[in-house]
Amino acid sequence: MANVNDMFNEVTKEQSFYTKAKKKEFTPFARGEYFGHITDVDSKILDVKGGQYKARLYTYTVEVDAENKSKNFEYEGIDGKPTKTKGDVYVGKRFKGKLWRFLEPAKDDTFESNSTGNTGYLKFCETIGIECPTETKTIDGEDVEVQLLPNLTSDVMLGKPVIAFVDKGRPFTNKKGEETFFWDCKFCKKWEGGKAKDIKPKGADLPF
After folding, report:
1. How many angstroms separate the CA atoms of 72 and 59, rounded?
2. What does the pLDDT look like over 9-59, one tens digit per residue?
3. For residue 201, what pLDDT is reported?
4. Whole-number Å distance between alpha carbons of 171 and 13
5. pLDDT digits (tens, 9 = 90+) for 47-92
6. Higher pLDDT, 76 or 161
7. Residues 6+ apart with CB under 8 A from 159
8. Which of 40, 93, 134, 179 could form a disulfide with 61 if both were Cys (CB 3.0 to 4.6 A apart)?
9. Is 0.85 surpassed by the pTM of this model?
10. Interior/surface letters 77-87, b for 16+ CB within 10 angstroms, e for the rest
11. CA dihedral 29, 34, 37, 40 (to 10 degrees)
């Protein structure tokens, strides 16, 4: 006499199996340059140095591309010795980066200009192929040549190919009272020959 499982399987023609998942080996991150694409962007305006300056802070994510397989890396092993690895172990990994754009005060604003602090923002714009035109402006009675910096939006940044320079971030104390850190994207370089990906902003498919 067939048991219940045999009868049910005969009717549905379905089969199921269980196999034990293979344990993935963890490879520590390594300091260096990673091929990747910008996959997520958030921004907000903040007061800096107690309101002396005002800036827009961008927080973006770089996801490591399959092109990274061709690279070699060296990380610190458990024994403290340098260990070499191929870049394929990092494909799909993500790193956070930050970008500051200091704003210029309008007529009634009380914060100060910090245009010299926008070096990193200018280089980032150039890295993802955004032009920053030069213009002459009168500042404090003098004609000064400036580069106009665009207000980058997520739809402009998402999917852009970059080479992310990754290193240890600022140490912090976790919930267990242990000092630890994240691996951060410190800055981006131009990926010559890198192709952009079609990545939609969060909520782009929502009907409202």
Report:
1. 28
2. 666 667 777 777 666 678 999 999 999 999 999 999 999 999 999 999 999
3. 77
4. 56
5. 999 999 999 999 999 999 999 998 999 998 888 889 999 999 999 9
6. 161
7. 37, 38, 39, 196, 197, 198, 199
8. 40
9. no
10. eeeeeeeebeb
11. 30
Amino acid in the structure at residue 152: L
Three-state SS annotation for the chain:
CCCHHHHHHHHHCCCCCCCCCCCCCCCCCCCEEEEEEEEEEEEEEEEECCCCEEEEEEEEEEEECHHHHHCEEEEECCCCCEEEEEHHHHCCCEEEEEEEEECCCCCCCCCCCCHHHHHHHHHHHHHCCCCCCEEEEEECCEEEEEECCCCCCHHHHCCCEEEEEEEECCCEECCCCCEECCEEEEEEEECCCCCCCCCCCCCCCCCC
* Tens digits of residue pLDDT in 92-141: 999 999 999 999 999 899 999 999 999 999 999 999 999 998 988 877 77
Sign of CA dihedral 30, 34, 36, 41: positive
- The pLDDT score that the predictor gives to residue 206 is 44
Q: Considering Cα of 161, then 188, then 115, then 57, what sign does the dihedral take?
A: positive
Identity at 147, one-letter amino acid code: Q
